[in-house]
Amino acid sequence: MGVIYIVRHGQASTAAYDTDVADDVPTGLTELGRHQAEHAGVALSRRIGHVDAAFCGDLPRQRETLDLVLAQLPDSPVPTVDERWDEYRIADVLSGVDVPSSTDTRGYQEVLDAALDRWIGGGEGAGESFADFTGRAADALTQAATAAGSGKTVVVASSSGTIAAVVAALWGMPPQSWQSLARMMVNTAITKLIVGGAGVHVASVAEHAHVETAGLMTYR
After folding, report:
1. Rounded distance, CA 2 to CA 10, Å?
2. What is the assigned CATH class of domain 2-88+130-212?
3. Helix 60-70, helix 31-45: angle, nearest 10
4. I want to staple 210 with a disulfide (CB 3.0 to 4.6 A). Which of 7, 43, 121, 171 is the partner?
């Protein structure tokens, strides 16, 4: 059987979630996020003998996370950057919505949740539809599963929404359940999938002891 480990990215800078940010503003990991990614790599090094393939989305926080994870795993392959592992674009989901300041955490989350409900339900918005988003996540998983093949190990760095889309599809969950699944993904949580003759199956979701025991656990 093949194995796929999907790691959510480490804590990213606030700019990574802003709906209007200049191109020259860093959107990679914070110092804490880098520590989280290193801890995830160490945790995986205790479980993995060799990494056969690695994938990540094209977002700076995803690429940086994968680099730090693979640094803890000797002789790792050169990662493949695949935009299908990218997170949904918050700016598109919130297009046309009066958004509170990101410092108003509760107000911002309420507005985002309502916008996500509309998006999931097929409401109008900029950019890709929810169906397109979940479709590309499924396609990305298919490629990773092919790379896992028989007895191989694949490591992926992605984001909470994309990981939740993959797990929700494998579990046959209704679209409306996707949000609650995404919200439980702490930074650098590890989801393990098993690839076998009968397809891809979920072995575990959002494992995070490596950051919880180290006092490094964050959700954003």
Report:
1. 25
2. alpha beta
3. 40
4. 43
Domain boundaries defined on the chain = 2-88+130-212, 89-127
Q: Is beta strand 190-196 parallel, antiparallel or unpaired with respect to 199-207?
A: antiparallel
The pTM score is 0.92
Which stretch of 12-26, 43-57, 125-139, 162-176 has the lowest confidence by average pLDDT? 12-26
